[in-house]
Amino acid sequence: MPIKKLTNTLSKDAKARFLSSLIENGIIRFPAKGADDMKDELCNFPKWKFDDQMDGLYYAIKVIPSGSGSPVVEQVKVTTNTAARKIIDMVRRW
After folding, report:
1. Could you identify which of 2, 28, 58, 86 might form a hypothetical disulfide with 22, taking C-beta atoms 3.0 to 4.6 angstroms apart as the criterion?
2. Exposure b/e, 60-91, CB count within 10 A at least 16 = b
3. How far apart (Å, rounded) are the C-alpha atoms in residues 49 and 45?
4. Distances from the Cα of 42 to the Cαs of 1, 37, 47, 82, in angstroms?
């Protein structure tokens, strides 16, 4: 497994907005049980006592490789467009 250097280029607010669009569109789903800490952190951002899981989730999504080695999930805009639709369909087929 190759190790990739991750650089922080987005603010916490930008990461929250990015994850929010993926969650709202059903790309990221959480189990009914077992993810309470993560859900609490995301739902109560920025007033929650912790925010490290949000960072971890953001970086995990950014480095998920596709067959070509590039990230599967790129910035998804709230408006639907061809690129976003392809990403959503690809992730849902998993």
Report:
1. 28
2. ebbeeeeeeeeebbeebeeeeeeebeebbeeb
3. 9
4. 29, 9, 10, 28
Question: Is 46 buried (19+), middle (13-18) or exposed (0-12) by CB count in 10 A?
Answer: exposed
CA distances from 17 to 26, 33, 42, 71, 94 (A): 14, 24, 10, 18, 23
What would the pLDDT profile of 8-34 be if each residue is shown by its tens digit? Answer: 788 888 888 888 888 888 888 888 888
User: Mind listing the pLDDT tens digit for each residue in 60-75?
Assistant: 887 776 545 555 444 4
